[in-house]
């Protein structure tokens, strides 16, 4: 894994769905200095694991936007499909949820002193922040 500099804010997101399609939800852990904030979001009764991951990311981005967080923000997800979708950029947005995600990313990144890094991390392998977001 590429080593990133110590950020001002670290965010871990994780989505889940029972049997991959039922009772979707997301967990988020925000670490800022010595403070830890645990958040969660419902993501619908039916859907996909990707939708659950996307809802967790959107909840984290909304939280950051509402609090006008600045500085270096490292956001970690264990969803390879979500990272691949982000790499495609906003012009290939397929859903209103993805459009909302890109709007939040733009709002956060348009602040003068904000750098947002989104990084894939492997899931279920002992990365403390990811394990905490997973619960």
UniProtKB/TrEMBL annotation:
It comes from the Eukaryota. CDD domains: Rnase_HI_RT_non_LTR. InterPro entries: RNaseH-like_sf, RNaseH_domain, RNaseH_sf. GO terms for molecular function: nucleic acid binding; RNA-DNA hybrid ribonuclease activity. Signal peptide: none annotated. Residues 5-135 form the RNase H type-1 domain. This is Ribonuclease H.
């Amino acid at each position: 894994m590429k080593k990133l500099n110590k950020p001002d804010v670290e965010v871990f997101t994780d989505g889940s769905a029972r049997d991959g399609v039922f009772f979707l939800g997301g967990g988020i852990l925000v670490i800022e200095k010595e403070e830890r904030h645990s958040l969660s979001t419902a993501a619908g009764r039916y859907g996909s694991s990707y939708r659950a991951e996307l809802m967790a990311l959107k909840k984290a981005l909304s939280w950051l936007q509402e609090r006008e967080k600045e500085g270096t923000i490292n956001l970690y997800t264990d969803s390879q499909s979500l990272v691949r979708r982000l790499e495609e950029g906003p012009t290939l947005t397929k859903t209103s949820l993805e459009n909302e995600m890109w709007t939040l990313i733009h709002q956060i990144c348009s602040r003068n002193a904000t750098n947002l890094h989104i990084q894939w991390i492997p899931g279920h392998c002992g990365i403390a922040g990811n394990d905490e977001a997973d619960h």
